[in-house]
Amino acid sequence: MEIGVPAQARVVTLGQDCILVDDKYTPILCFKLEVIPNPAANGQGPTAPYTVEVKQGVPVYATGRVQPGATISVRYDPADPKQVAIDFQAMGYKL
Fold it and tell me: What is the pTM of this model?
C-alpha cells in the first residue's frame, strides 16, 4: 500500500508460508498486528489501537525486523482501517 495513513503497529504474532515467485524464494508471512493510529491523521480512521490480521510478502533481509514484540511502520486505509500494509520504505528498506 503506497498510499494510506502512516502509523505504528506492534507485531503480536507471526506465522509463515513460503511461495516461489519469479524463481525467487519469497516469504509470505501472516501477522497479527496491533495498530496504533496516527493522532496527526485528523480524524481519518480509528483513534484507538486495534488488532488486524495481515498476510504480506516480506523481503528476506527484513524478516528480523518483523518479529513478535517489534514495533513497525504501517499504512492503513482510513475508509477501511482493516486494510493495513507494512511500510518497509518507512522502515528504511529499499524495495
Answer: 0.84
Sequential DSSP letters for 10-38: EEEEEEEEEEEETTEEEEEEEEEEEEE--
Sign of the dihedral defined by the CA atoms of residues 59, 65, 69, 70, in that order: negative
DSSP conformation class of 58: -
Dmax of the chain from CA atoms?
43
Cα–Cα distances in angstroms (integers) from residue 85 to residues 23, 32, 35, 48, 67, in the given order: 24, 12, 11, 18, 15
Domain boundaries, the chain: 5-86
The residue length of the chain stands at 95
d(C-alpha 4, C-alpha 77), whole Å: 5
Quote the CA–CA distance of 14 and 80 in Å, as a whole number.
23
**CA angle centred on 57, ends 52 and 59, rounded to 5°:** 125
Mind listing the pLDDT tens digit for each residue in 19-55?
666 566 778 889 999 999 877 766 667 778 999 999 9
